[in-house]
């Protein structure tokens, strides 16, 4: 199932940042098998320090000549009716959330996590564009290594381009930890959750620092798929090592502080289970807008989808918020794995767990929404 006709005009929004490849028709392809296999990975590959700011273009000057086929955008009427848990949600957040709800089950939104140490933060984005002629709809960012202003500015640029912003945070252990290795440390969560303790004060200071960046995004009109404390039930990060009850208190603490103290109304709260999807970790419906799971093995991951649905119900959108191999769109349709989006992890996961030919077919599949198929949210 392929997209039928080409519309270059839908890519016009990209001209400020993107060199557009030529337009041509494309013969129908069958989905090639995803040749790369990999056992389930419980946590992302080791992170590398943030690269310096790069002025490289979003797309290389000499991309592979692919032939994307037509853009058949879903006909969705955007609405700012509030279905988010935050009664004071911004108009942009409400519109984006309603769009995700409206396409849920009929399409899957494409996404890609960036790396920042391969010469340019657009390394993966360039690779997808060069091999598919398309851009992912969602850009995944990470406040890891205190790359605060860099992440914030790239998020604003992606929203201005017409895309959707997802942000996670490999948060180093409080009170002053930084980076991926520190995020795998351990603290006394009961002490950290005791108001007035030194550990509590240090944790709140780190939390508030990121809140300031999210305020910049709110002022710029950028809604954020905010995915803190990811893979909590895997218990390989500090925020999951204190057990389910302490995690729920931690999630609610951040939700309350960000929403009621800092007035962050641009956040769509995404609860990111690991591939294990354990019971006993759900903070409650009033604190979660979207839930999901992740996995780094092949297949539609229907069992993970069903586990999340058993916890949050069938009305809340469910996201495949981290993946290695991208699930086969035809198999997702057949299996009923109605993920609202996929977000492929960076570097080896996009390049070695998915062939270039497979990416080309996925990103030009009717079921998969790319950046050029998104409505004008602004």
UniProtKB/TrEMBL annotation:
GH26 domain boundaries: 91-372
Biased composition range(s): Low complexity: 32-55
Family of this protein: Belongs to the glycosyl hydrolase 26 family.
Alphabetized GO MF terms: mannan endo-1,4-beta-mannosidase activity
Pfam families hit by this protein: Glyco_hydro_26
Keywords of the record: Glycosidase, Hydrolase, Signal
Naturally occurring in which organism (per UniProt): Candidatus Cohnella colombiensis
Region (Disordered): 28-59
UniProt name for this protein: Glycosyl hydrolase
Active site: 231 (proton donor), 322 (nucleophile)
């Amino acid at each position: 199932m392929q997209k039928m006709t080409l519309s270059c005009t839908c890519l016009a929004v990209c001209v400020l940042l993107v060199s557009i490849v030529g337009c041509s028709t494309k013969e129908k392809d069958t989905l090639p098998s995803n040749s790369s296999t990999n056992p389930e990975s419980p946590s992302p590959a080791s992170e590398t320090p943030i690269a310096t700011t790069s002025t490289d273009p979003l797309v290389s000057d000499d991309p592979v000549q692919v032939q994307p086929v037509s853009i058949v955008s879903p006909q969705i009427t955007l609405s700012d009716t509030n279905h988010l848990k935050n009664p004071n949600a911004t108009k942009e957040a409400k519109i984006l959330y309603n769009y995700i709800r409206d396409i849920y089950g009929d399409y899957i939104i494409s996404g890609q996590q960036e790396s920042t140490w391969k010469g340019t933060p657009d390394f993966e984005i360039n690779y997808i564009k060069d091999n598919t002629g398309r851009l992912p709809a969602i850009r995944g960012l990470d406040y890891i290594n205190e790359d605060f202003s860099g992440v914030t500015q790239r998020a604003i640029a992606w929203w201005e381009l017409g895309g959707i912003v997802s942000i996670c945070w490999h948060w180093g252990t409080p009170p002053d930890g930084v980076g991926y290795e520190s995020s795998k440390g351990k603290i006394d969560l009961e002490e950290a959750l005791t108001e007035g303790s030194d550990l509590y004060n240090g944790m709140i200071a780190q939390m508030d620092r990121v809140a300031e960046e999210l305020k910049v995004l709110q002022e710029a009109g950028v809604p954020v798929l905010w995915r803190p404390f990811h893979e909590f039930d895997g218990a390989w990060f500090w925020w999951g090592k204190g057990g389910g009850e302490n995690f729920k208190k931690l999630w609610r603490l951040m939700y309350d502080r960000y929403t009621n103290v800092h007035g962050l109304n641009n956040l769509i709260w995404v609860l990111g289970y690991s591939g294990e999807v354990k019971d006993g970790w759900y903070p409650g419906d009033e604190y979660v807008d979207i839930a999901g799971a992740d996995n780094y093995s092949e297949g539609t991951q229907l069992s993970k989808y069903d586990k999340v649905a058993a916890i949050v119900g069938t009305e809340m959108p469910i996201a495949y918020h981290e993946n290695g191999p991208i699930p086969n769109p035809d198999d997702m349709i057949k299996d009923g794995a109605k993920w609202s989006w996929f977000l492929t992890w960076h570097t080896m996961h996009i390049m070695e767990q998915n062939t270039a030919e497979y990416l080309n077919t996925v990103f030009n599949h009717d079921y998969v929404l790319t950046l050029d198929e998104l409505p004008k949210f602004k």
